[in-house]
Amino acid sequence: MPWFEDIEIGSRMELGSHTFTADEIVAFATKYDPQYFHTDAEAARHGPFGGLTASGWHTSAMWMKLMVATRQGREESLDADGRKPPAGGPSPGFLDMKWPAPVRAGDTITYSSTVIEKIEMKSRPQWGIIRSRNTGMNQNGETVLSFIGQGLIQRRHPRGE
Q: What is the pLDDT of residues 34-50, one digit of tens each?
């Protein structure tokens, strides 16, 4: 992860794709979101989606897995001061999370993240907040996941130095 100062609004990261299977949909939902339309294919046929669908939390968890893998796979070179940029910080939470279309067995979801805002923190001058629009799109171009993520990112030169 680059320093806060180096992150540009509009920069986009492609995080990769994941194909959901019926077995993993049921396994995830059985453990974390045991609603019948996620756990029982036969009962789900008569439910609101007309078939088995992945939990929204499952689609979000796959976004997180791919985001972490993308960050860990990036080689960051030393900055002008000879320091390696930080790994990234914790998140103060998500905003406006939506699952506008269901994810079904066999769907391949492609995830991305685009920086939309930078916030300088008055209470913690050594940190800033980056807000990103995050999406998951299925193979038909339909959005199945959308949210604004927030992350604390270290500043190279905290305000006041």
A: 999 999 999 999 999 99
Q: How crowded is residue 160: how many other Cβ atoms within 10 Å of its Cβ?
A: 6
Evaluate whether 1 touches 86 at the Cβ level (below 8 Å).
Answer: yes
DSSP state of 118: E
Instruction: Please tell me the distance from the alpha carbon of residue 40 to that of residue 25, in angstroms, as a whole number.
Output: 10
Give percent above pLDDT 90 in the chain. Answer: 75
User: What tokens were used for 116?
Assistant: 């939309």
Separation of alpha carbons 148 and 133, rounded Å: 5
At residue 134, φ and ψ (nearest 5 deg) are -115, 135
The gap from C-alpha 63 to its chain's centroid, in whole angstroms, comes to 4
User: Which residues are CB-contacts of 91 (< 8 A; sequence separation ≥ 6)?
Assistant: 149, 150, 151, 152
